[in-house]
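User: Please fill in residues for this 843-position structure.
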């Protein structure tokens, strides 16, 4: 054992510069995995310690409808219960906020939260300027607004705004609020007022999309009992939900665990890519050490001992690389708080976690072992006679069962690693299979391109011919470099193409949209007035559409119970509240795919038309019977046709449409979708006049939503581009490592050329041709694969129109060429400056 340690130490000391690349590959891969896992685990730990502040209470009862008398009686009974230490009411709704006095500023849709003095039981408000929160700020019609609102509406503290029927005074700016959703999407910024003021302002009238919450504070011992008793007493109540803070904690922790696992798989891609480079470096390193190994065997060294010495080097480098990866991860996690400041509704202490660190060390050692094992087994085939005859190839049986067994071990080891990181054998298997298929396709494409280049090896130009021939030199790593750099280009170009296609879909040349403004919560007696204002500013007569809210209660006589449906089996479609309409015509963006749409004549029984989504997901067909719960009233209708809706070319779209005559008596609200005035003063005046005259109406400006969507796409694209950059960096490292490991061949070629009269300029041109071709092939491989992937995602997953963006592919390919040329020439600088005599003497 002492011999193995001594030999490993001497070899590392003399060859460390050759194995430096091995060390860096492990460091980058481990650093990415540990930093990603640590960041998510930091948030999970904070959720565990501050989970009550996410709900702001111990137990919550919530509903999307006003409390009916029975529910209200149950809640009031519990307010007096010994289990309840305190209680408070909260309501949330969307409404329009407009400034008082400045007619040029357009009203803004906001998400309003109305609270009572006891709110919150847990968590704290953070106000700008160091201002301390007190419910007194909301008394006498005070309002707190989210940061960003004053700037967007040219407001300041002390200014007056109008919400519903009342005027409010801005008393403070909220930087962070307890209970705000983690990364939640909303149609507008948050504003907060007193609970009683919301009622007085008419913000809870019938039709407004309001969520009611009753919050309870209790003891740890009484929480489960209170939750269970409330569930039992409120069982069967429509749209009422009971949950504790632990539910939110468990759901968020589960989601974050999935995020952690999938981000770890992304890190594993980087590490596997580095592993490919490790395998290449190990193979070339063993080839360069063949004489040393042959001498050791002449001196009595056994295969096991020699193999153990080199395996010891691999594990030592893997450990050192993993430790450097931990240092990289520590630096990354220390920089993160600057980015997340104010974006997470609770305090998070970012730093390295010991679980992620141990996982990183283990994964780094496993990748080092797995990817170097098969190349290290070549040591067994090196014969002592190679000391005398260096041209003899290492011998061995045609089928090396030990290498085959080692290959199987490597595959099983990678499967275990992927399954561990994904938290699922199934996901790990799919990940590994996908990675294998992608690697195979890129490798096959690289082989075809190399075969094509082989036909150009006899072209007249010496510089081009030598550059191409260099790709086929002994010990070349051409295919591995193409694979690694090509994968990096593939990631980066794919993300950019998807980002531009999504932006194109969201912008759609906004001027070509059929509707860019939506009015909701229109009362029946307001239709004429709303039409007059719209016609005044747009010159067009609007279509005002009736809507009714309902749930699916039964299908073909069988009651629907969403709780009995698994989450991934259409629970959302079965349990959600639908917005229905009734009409006797098809919209321009609709066509019937089955059955026949009705005419204007009356029907003897209720009839309904469903969109293809419900046909495909719930198995609804023509002739089926559907029972709807319309605010407590059950209506059974027969499906007479199935519609296909072009959602990309729609003003409004409905999954369920009734034949007129069935639901007109139900409580009805109206909506309208219009092509609003051009952006500017007229658009602002239109919104202001509409909301001033009809305060209950909410105006949704599609242009604002598109800006929010663009921001989300931009953040996601930035994150994935960052990962793609890591992959591309790994590819460049493999290129550097390949150059370092084949430097002797390059030095020898350079010495021969210089001896025959070649100038330094010719050597440089030859290197530029070699690396330029490598970069060009890698760029073409990556960008072509990116086109195929983004087309498939747009057509089959996102269901949006795909656009070819040739400029992105050209720029990606050009960038790959320039970077590979730059890195290649810099890494090969000593090939150009060393004198040929010393090199030839050494040979």
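Assistant: Residues filled in for all 843 positions:
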């Amino acid at each position: 054992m002492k011999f193995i340690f001594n030999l490993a130490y001497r070899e590392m000391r003399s060859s460390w510069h050759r194995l430096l690349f091995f060390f860096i590959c492990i460091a980058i891969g481990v650093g990415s995995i540990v930093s990603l896992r640590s960041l998510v685990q930091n948030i999970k730990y904070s959720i565990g310690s501050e989970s009550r502040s996410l709900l702001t209470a111990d137990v919550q009862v919530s509903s999307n409808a006003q409390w009916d008398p029975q529910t209200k009686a149950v809640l009031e009974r519990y307010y007096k219960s010994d289990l309840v230490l305190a209680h408070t009411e909260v309501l949330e709704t969307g409404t329009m906020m407009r400034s008082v006095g400045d007619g040029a500023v357009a009203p803004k849709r906001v998400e309003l939260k109305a609270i009572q003095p006891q709110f919150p039981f847990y968590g704290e408000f953070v106000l700008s300027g160091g201002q301390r929160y007190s419910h007194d700020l909301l008394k006498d019609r005070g309002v707190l607004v989210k940061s960003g609102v004053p700037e967007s509406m040219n407001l300041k503290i002390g200014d007056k705004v109008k919400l519903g029927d009342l005027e409010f005074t801005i008393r403070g700016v909220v930087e962070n609020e307890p209970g705000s959703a983690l990364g939640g999407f909303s149609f507008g910024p948050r504003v907060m007022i007193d609970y009683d003021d919301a009622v007085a302002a008419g913000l809870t009238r019938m039709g407004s999309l309001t969520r009611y919450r009753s919050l309870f504070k209790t003891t740890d011992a009484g929480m489960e009992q209170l939750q269970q008793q409330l569930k039992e007493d409120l069982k069967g109540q429509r749209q009422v939900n009971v949950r504790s803070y632990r539910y939110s904690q468990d759901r968020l922790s589960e989601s974050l665990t999935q995020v952690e696992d999938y981000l770890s798989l992304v890190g594993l891609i980087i590490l596997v890519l580095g592993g490919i480079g490790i395998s290449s470096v190990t193979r070339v390193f063993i080839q360069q050490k063949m004489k040393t190994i042959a001498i050791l065997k002449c001196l009595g060294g056994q295969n096991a001992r020699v193999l153990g010495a080199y395996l010891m080097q691999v594990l030592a480098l893997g450990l050192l690389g993993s430790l450097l990866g931990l240092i990289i991860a520590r630096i990354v996690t220390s920089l993160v708080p600057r980015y997340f400041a104010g974006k997470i509704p609770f305090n998070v202490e970012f730093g390295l976690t010991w679980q992620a660190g141990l996982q990183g060390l283990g994964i780094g050692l496993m990748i080092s072992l797995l990817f170097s094992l098969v190349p290290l087994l070549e040591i067994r085939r090196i014969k002592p006679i190679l000391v005398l005859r260096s041209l003899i190839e290492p011998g061995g049986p045609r089928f090396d069962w030990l290498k085959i067994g080692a290959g199987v071990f490597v595959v099983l080891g990678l499967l275990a690693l992927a399954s561990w990181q994904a938290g699922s054998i199934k996901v790990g298997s799919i990940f590994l299979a996908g990675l294998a298929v992608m690697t195979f396709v890129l490798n096959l494409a690289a082989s075809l391109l190399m075969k094509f280049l082989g036909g150009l090896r006899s072209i007249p130009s010496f510089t081009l011919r030598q550059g191409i021939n260099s790709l086929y030199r002994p010990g070349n790593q051409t295919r591995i470099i193409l694979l690694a750099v090509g994968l990096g280009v593939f990631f980066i170009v794919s993300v950019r193409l998807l980002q531009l296609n999504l932006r194109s879909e969201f912008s759609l040349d906004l001027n070509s949209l059929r509707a860019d403004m939506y009015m909701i919560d229109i009362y029946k007696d307001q239709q004429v007035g709303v039409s007059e204002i719209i016609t005044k500013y747009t010159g067009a007569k609007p279509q005002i559409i009736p809507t009714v809210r309902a749930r699916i209660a039964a299908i073909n006589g069988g009651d629907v119970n969403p709780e009995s449906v698994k989450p991934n089996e259409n629970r959302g479609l079965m349990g959600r509240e639908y917005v229905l309409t009734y009409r006797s015509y098809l919209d321009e963006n609709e066509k019937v795919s089955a059955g026949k749409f009705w005419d204007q004549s009356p029907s003897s029984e209720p009839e309904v038309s469903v969109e293809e989504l419900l046909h495909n997901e719930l198995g609804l067909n023509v002739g089926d019977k559907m029972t709807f719960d319309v605010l407590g009233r059950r209506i059974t209708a027969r499906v007479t046709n199935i519609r296909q809706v072009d959602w990309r070319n729609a003003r409004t779209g409905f999954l369920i449409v009734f034949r007129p005559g069935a639901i007109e008596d139900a409580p009805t609200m109206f909506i309208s979708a219009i092509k609003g005035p051009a952006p500017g003063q007229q658009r602002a005046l239109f919104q202001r006049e509409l909301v001033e005259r009809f305060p209950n109406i909410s105006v949704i400006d599609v242009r604002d939503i598109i800006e929010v969507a663009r921001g989300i796409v931009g953040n996601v694209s930035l994150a994935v581009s960052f990962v793609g950059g890591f992959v591309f960096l790994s590819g460049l490292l493999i290129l550097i490592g390949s150059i370092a490991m084949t430097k002797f061949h390059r030095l020898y070629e350079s010495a021969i050329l210089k001896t025959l009269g070649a100038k330094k300029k010719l050597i440089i041109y030859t290197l530029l041709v070699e690396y330029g071709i490598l970069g060009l092939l890698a760029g073409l491989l990556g960008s072509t694969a990116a086109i195929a992937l983004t087309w498939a995602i747009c057509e089959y997953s996102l269901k949006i129109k795909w656009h070819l963006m040739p400029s992105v592919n050209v720029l990606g390919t050009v960038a790959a060429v320039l970077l590979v040329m730059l890195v290649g020439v810099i890494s090969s600088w000593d090939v150009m400056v060393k004198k040929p005599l010393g090199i030839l003497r050494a040979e």
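For context: The first strand starts at residue 59 and ends at 63.
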